[in-house]
Structures are given as structure tokens and as C-alpha cells.
Specification:
38% helix, globular, alpha/beta, Rossmann fold
């Protein structure tokens, strides 16, 4: 498996090729930006899944995080969590994935968290792109409400717009694979 520096370089190349668009965009926060990062164009691609999974697992190890599962708010977090869980399995590491629903199901089990999550479990919340931190904070709230323990947040990209600080302000460490600066992106 390639070294984390090589994986980061490949991730940056994939994001720039597949996920970064330049123009005039309104972000979920309502703020305007001269660039948009649709990380799903990378995290849902075959090579992107392999790179994100391997690098995500390295990031967990570097932080000393040993979660039972990784997951976050659907849809952006889903391929990230699944990629990391698959990479862990390939290395004989026990690590599962879960998904936090945006809206509770009105039928069936009515669960807010789907997949491999159990109350009391230590988890890492994952995210594709951190802007304001709102999605990660919503996932953290759901995990805590269901009796989980959050070790921290792992994101593929940090837009460097205050989301990391918002998450850290409430007491959760944040690890990112790349940031907007490392992609050569900043608003004019």
C-alpha cells in the first residue's frame, strides 16, 4: 500500500480532476464562493474509494483512534465510511460503518442511525467536505443521542472556512486528509 504522502498527492489530483469546479456558487451555508468541491465525484469513484479508504485508515492510526465504527450524515459521509471499513477489512482490522439519516424513517425500525452501530460504541464521525461543520455536528448529536462515544471527526476535505474550529470548539478533535489551501483553492 502506498505511503500517506503518496495517497494524499493522489487524492489531491483526483479531487482537482473530478471534484473541483470554479465559478460562482452558493454554498449550503448561504455564502457565495468562487469554487465548489463535490467530493462525491471522487469518493464514489473506484480509485477514489481505494485512496480514501487507505488514507482514512492511516489517519485513524496516526491519531491513535481505534473506533468500532465510522460513519456520518448521509450522503456525503457514506462512501467515506464504507471505503475506510473496506480498507480496514483488507488489512484484517475490525472496523464497521454506519449512516446517520437526515430524517427519521416513519416505518420499519424508525432508526436514526443505520448499519453497524451499537450504543456504547466508540466511533469516528466522517465527512466528505467540512465547511461550517454543521453536518458533522448533526452526526455527533445523533451518535450521542443513541449512546455512542465520539472519538473525533475525520474529513476528506476541509474548506478552511471555520467548520474545523466549530467542531473543535465543542470538544471534538478534527483530522483532515486535505484542505482547500493544499488544493490551491481560496476565494478571491
Amino acid at each position: 500500500m502506498p505511503h500517506s504522502d503518496d495517497l494524499r498527492a493522489r487524492l489531491r489530483a483526483l479531487l482537482l480532476d473530478r471534484s473541483v469546479a470554479r465559478g460562482d456558487f452558493v454554498l449550503a451555508s448561504g455564502r457565495r464562493s468562487s469554487f465548489y468541491i463535490d467530493a462525491r465525484r471522487t469518493t464514489m469513484a473506484g480509485e477514489g474509494l481505494a485512496v480514501v479508504g487507505a488514507l482514512g485508515l492511516e489517519c485513524l492510526r496516526a491519531r491513535g483512534w481505534m473506533p468500532a465504527a465510522v460513519g456520518g450524515l448521509t450522503l456525503g459521509a457514506d462512501p467515506v465510511a464504507y471505503a475506510i471499513a473496506a480498507a480496514a477489512y483488507a488489512q484484517h482490522v475490525s472496523l464497521d460503518a454506519f449512516t446517520v439519516r437526515k430524517v427519521l424513517k416513519g416505518h420499519g425500525s424508525g432508526r436514526h442511525i443505520e448499519g453497524c452501530f451499537a450504543p456504547g460504541a466508540a466511533v469516528v464521525v466522517v465527512e466528505d467536505v467540512i465547511t461550517t461543520g454543521g453536518s458533522a455536528l448533526a452526526a455527533i448529536a445523533a451518535v450521542l443521542a443513541e449512546g455512542g462515544r465520539v472519538l473525533g471527526v475525520l474529513a476528506v476535505v476541509d474548506r478552511d472556512e471555520g467548520g474545523r474550529a466549530a467542531i473543535e470548539h465543542v470538544g471534538y478533535p478534527v483530522e483532515t486528509m486535505v484542505n482547500a489551501h493544499s488544493l490551491g483553492l481560496k476565494d478571491a
